[in-house]
Each structure stands twice: as C-alpha cells, then as structure tokens.
Amino acid sequence: MRKFLLTVFVCGLVAAFAPTLQADTFGQAFQTAHTGTQLGNGPFTLGWSFDVTSSITVTDLAVFTDTGNLVEDHEVGIWDAAGNLLVSAFVGPTCGANGAVLDQLGQQLWCHTLVSPTALAPGTYTIGATWNSLTDDMIFDGTINDNVNGPNVAFLENAYIAGGFADPTNTTGDGHSYFGPNFSYGSTSTPEPGTLVLLGSGLLGAVGVVRRKLNL
Are 29 and 136 within one domain? Predict the structure, then answer.
C-alpha cells in the first residue's frame, strides 16, 4: 500500500511539472490575399528570422503555395542564433508527398508536414527553405499590411543564403521578406511555482489522510 501511495504522489508531481501544449497556430497567417512571386537565380535557402518571446513547440513545417500544389521538393529547417539546425523536413513536390497536407491559413494556402515536436525557448531563430528551380511561388512583399506576428512569435527580417540547404545568415532587412517557409506551433506553459507548492502540499495531505484511515 505504501508503494501504491508513493506512486500516486510521484505521478502527481510529474503531471504538475509537465508542460501543456495549446492549440496550434501558424508562424505567419496573413489575413489579406497576397499574390505569390517567382524568384530567379537559384538555388537559394530563403526565409525569415523571428523572436520567440515565450516558449513554443513547433509541430509542423510548411511551404507557401499559390495553386495548392508544389512543383519542387523543398527542405525546410529552423536554426537557432548559434547556427544549429533544430528541426527539418521535406515538403513537396506535391502536397500528398512526404506526408504533407494542404491547409488554408488566413487568405493563403500552405503545404505542411508533421515533425517531431521541437521546443523553442525564448530567443532568436531563423526559418529557411530551399528553392532550386524557383518555379514555386512565395510571398515576397515589402508592403504587407497584416500584423504578421503570431502568438509569442515576432517577425524580424528576411534571411537568405546562396547554394543548397543551409542556415540563411544574410539579410537585406524587413523591406521585402521571403515568406515561403512557415511553421505551425503551440505555446507551452508550466504551472507557476506557487501552484506547484500548493499541489504538492495537497498530495502530501491526501496521502496522510489515507494513511491515517488505514491505521484505524
């Protein structure tokens, strides 16, 4: 019986410390229509940098599509400020390939695929995707009127690098941004320390009551 009560107590503490994942949203979900643009002189890794203001968990990587389909295969990744690749996946060449599915977010279509849940702590990150033949469109807009920031995610500027799949370390600022790659995510949260103390005390009290009843 003591082992059972101890197990209940430990499980309660584990549940208290476990982060909770809120409903998924997209990094950039534009509320007005934007026409895709084809860029030349590939190959490039193109994308944008962003700040995470409160911890999130990335669940999908995505690529913009004007037509609901993709011509080429895009490798998408997210890097941290030190240049470490944290998560990556291939999206395309059709939305039915590599487990990718099609969704409409705001006024845009995104082809996206599931990835292993990847936690991003507060800090600066960059997302990029390869464009080889550059036949697939992307949103390359310098006059976006939408609030393109998602919950706990703040857009910074465009990012690019010539060649194959690599951390896109170059930028020309936020005048024009390569909204080809995207991601969906949930916000993670853990109970406050005071809540944890109260929960732990409650569990200990419950164990004590059960033990007293068993000793009667």
Answer: yes
Bridge partner residues of 129 (DSSP) = 46, 76
The DSSP element (H or E) to which 29 belongs, if any, is none
Strands (E), the chain: 20-21, 25-26, 44-52, 56-65, 74-80, 85-91, 101-105, 108-120, 123-131, 139-141, 153-162, 177-179, 181-189
Are 95 and 154 in a shared domain? yes
Percent of the chain with pLDDT over 70: 62
Owning domain of residue 10: 2-18+193-215
One domain for residues 158 and 143: yes
Residue type, 58: V
d(CA 7, CA 37): 58
pLDDT tens sequence across 39-81: 777 789 999 999 999 999 999 898 888 887 888 889 999 999 9
Q: Indicate the pairing of strand 74-80 with strand 123-131.
A: antiparallel
Phi, psi of 126 (to 5 degrees): -135, 135
Residue 95 has pLDDT above 70, yes or no: yes
**In angstroms, how far is the first alpha carbon of the chain from the final one?**
15
Based on the domain organization, do 129 and 72 belong to the same domain? yes
How many C-beta atoms surround the C-beta of residue 57 within 10 A?
16
- Per the prediction, the chain carries an average pLDDT of 73
Q: Which of 51, 53, 76, 71 is closest to 178 using CA atoms?
A: 76
Phi first, then psi, for residue 85 (nearest 5°) are -75, 120
Shared domain check, 140 and 87: yes
